[in-house]
Amino acid sequence: MVANCRIVEPKSGIYPAEDYCHAMEVKGAERLLFVSGTMGLDEKGVAPPGLEQQLELIWANITAILAVASMTKDNIVRLTSYLRHKDYALANQNARLAALRGRRIPTTAIVVETLESDWLVEIEAIAAA
Hints:
Mean pLDDT: 95
Largest sheet: 4 strands, mixed
Strand order of the largest sheet: 3-6-4-5
Strand content: 25-35%
Low-confidence stretches: none
Radius of gyration: 15 Å
Number of helices: 2
CATH superfamily of the domain at 32-44 and 54-128: RutC-like
Order of helices and strands: EEEHEHEE
């Protein structure tokens, strides 16, 4: 994780954030990486038929993108997930928690119509180092 990050959350007066955090302060970061919406597509641009397979590919693709910038998933400080259906929320949450090894970060999930009907989830990220 980025050395100078801290979770910022009110102790009261707001709903609890159990698997994510409401806010994260990043101090002293020298680099920010904005990762475009990333789909669960293989190297040929093909989406496998299942949600779980697409989530695995998304996280593999994000990991590969981060590596080019000499970063890891530990550098991710913000995520937005775009889900084709609300029923995908739990699988997406579980994949995020597994990928980040339970580390809480600010995150948002939005139900949308993706550009292609076989794209079930798209995730964009911000990383800092």
